[in-house]
Amino acid sequence: MSSIRMLTLRPTNRLFQSYLQLPRFYASQAKDATDEPASTSATESDLPVTFVEDEDLLAAREAQIEQIRNKSRLLPQHRNMLNNLLPYEESQSWIHETVKYKRMMLGRYGLDASRVDPRICFPTQREAFEKTEYERVAYPKTLKEMMKENKKTKQEKADRIRIREEEVTKKMEKLDQWVADLNKRIATKEAEARAAKERKDRLVEEVRRHFGFRIDPRDERFQEMLAQKEKEDRKKVREAKRKEKEVKMLDKLKKKTADLENEESKDATTGKEEVDKK
């Protein structure tokens, strides 16, 4: 008894404390419960004390011990995965009955640990037929034909890129000329705008001198006289352009006539040389 009392005083010996808290029956109590005659021999009353334990209590105790030992606080399925074991002994969801899940378990844990029939990894006759039919409809061309088309597509793309690069190169060569032409057109437009403004100012000044006094430009008389002056000025401009065009045409005709005369003189000289040679 002294040894038992010493064990119970230790705070770390929880297993023995829980063991002492379990119900126990002594031989003398069992005798009273069965109402055996009092004529029991003295030798039976001196039997040592025995313990009778319940299996459910033992299982609960073992579960409590396992729970205490589980310092990681992981769930059973997670602990099984950590130890490279099957997470669940039985299916917990409809997902665990799918072919995809079973194939995954077989590939991860092997034949023995996964307890999955390896035939599930192979397609059935119907699945093989459906897959073949799908490939026949979705990919009607052979691999050689697809490779040929792919090569042709790549070549066409390369040709388009090459042609585009050549066009860009040619245009870059003409870039300086285009810039010069643009600047020339801009300068021409600006010169025309300045000339138009100067002509308009000149016409306004002529109208003012015609009246001989200061007049409002919005006056009808001023507007009529300005329109008349503009009409006369446009007529003068057209006449100047016509004369300039005639001069250019005459110069062109003179040049053409001179070229024809030169060609005739050359032909005559060549004919004369040929006659002299003969």
Topology:
Layout: H1 2-9, H2 14-21, H3 27-33, H4 42-45, H5 55-69, H6 76-82, H7 99-114, H8 125-138, H9 143-173, H10 175-211, H11 220-277
Please state the overall shape, judged from the principal axes of the Cα atoms: elongated
Per DSSP E runs of 2 or more residues, the count of β-strands stands at: 0
Strand content: under 5%
Low-confidence stretches: 1-12, 24-45
Mean pLDDT: 78
Strand count, sense and barrel status of the largest sheet are:
none
Q: Number of helix segments?
A: 11
Query: What sequence of helices (H) and strands (E) makes up the elements?
Result: HHHHHHHHHHH
Distance between the termini: 162 Å
In a nutshell, what does this entry contain?
The chain has 278 residues and is an all-alpha fold. The protein has helices at 2-9, 14-21, 27-33, 42-45, 55-69, 76-82, 99-114, 125-138, 143-173, 175-211, 220-277.
